[in-house]
User: What shape does this take?
Amino acid sequence: MKKNTTLHSQSHPQSSCASPCNNPCTPKTTQRPIKELSSKAVITLSQLKKEPDWMLQIRLAALDLFHSLAMPLWGPSLKELNFDHLTYYLPAQAPEQNTWDNVPQKLQETFEDLGIRKAERDFLGGLGAQYESEMIYHNLKKELAAQGVLFLSPDQAIQKHPDLVQKYFASVVSTSDNKFAALNTALWSGGTFIYVPPKVQVTIPLQTYFRIDTQGMGQFERTLIIADTDSLVTYIEGCTAPTHQAQSLHTAVVEIVACKGSRVRYYTIQNWSKNVYNLVTKRAAAYENAVVEWIDGNFGSNVTMKYPGVILKEPGAKADILSVAMAGTNGQIQDSGGRIIHQAPHTTSKIISKSISCNGGRTSYRGALVIEKNANGCKSFIQCDNLILDSQSRADAYPYLKINNDDVEVGHEATVSRISDEQLFYIQSRGIDAQTARTFVINGFIEPFIKELPMEFAVEMNRLIALEMENHAS
Assistant: This one.
């Protein structure tokens, strides 16, 4: 791995066009919604954002790949997803702000009602808020900024730190990784850019919250996190959308670079409405003695396909993926899990996946473990547990293990179970009603996940579970 340069050597503010453009910027671009997948649309979006030519060329190449790559031939059916009926970009109602006072009142109220502003006041080190296609707010506590921490939208990062963005953009998730990663790369807008300098410890979580309100909307944020040598950062991602009849699409790409000795903890709690296709690609690269922890919760959406991955690139690197999914609506599919690639010797990994199916919902664990032939002395453990609450629901497991080295320790176990009458009888004999008794059993089932969450998010998770159980009872 190339040694990262320090932040200060890359902090060169950039003019609107950082390098010569093959397509000169239009003086004033009309800000209209983008509803087509064309090179003209990509050029318009790039000009609107006043991007350097290298980013425009990445976008155009990605669009070509999107059109050439096939839809996934595995996993949930996506035949109902219609790319012709989506809005791919909605202009911002106002420029991005670093104080809520300057955010339009309606948006202030939306994020206040969601509890996001209260979370910022109570326990966050920084907050970003995205509404539809653009970030409307980004702010970082002064004490973290004074240590050289960057917490920006990618648009701002490209303008202020172009060398840093160009070095790492698409370095962990290649444009050709899959059709939806290509789509994101072509039309990405919004998201978060984080850089933590060497030896800086960001112990207070940073959070970005994504909101879709418009039906038929496509949201394509891009997240890039760089934890430099011996640094630490905790990041929380949340998302919601109201229910509409028309389908919406959320296609994000998250890239994490965990440099030597760093530690990155990434929380995701998604609760999209049941009309959203949540098709994302999230991956980290972990270098010598780095630790990446992925705590991933999936409750909403119509279809989710999400498999956080970690590539263990140098000796001593470690990855922990803890995933929980709940499919509580007839026809809902939560296809999730984790992927680990051991490329270096003496690396360790663990995947623990918990899923709950009820009301005709379906969960699938889809995990992959690859140990390459030079990765001797590796250790990995995978545990997949499924809880089915009724006869209309379904749970599947599709583990994939490719072990190319004999000098490794690998464990894998999987269970499928139902809530037994004996369990419910025992709890109800203490004067507890049947619905609460079921909730108690479920909370115990996913306890390994809940205990890893900050208190405020553990409370939110318990509330989501209680709501699903109310639906199951009805």
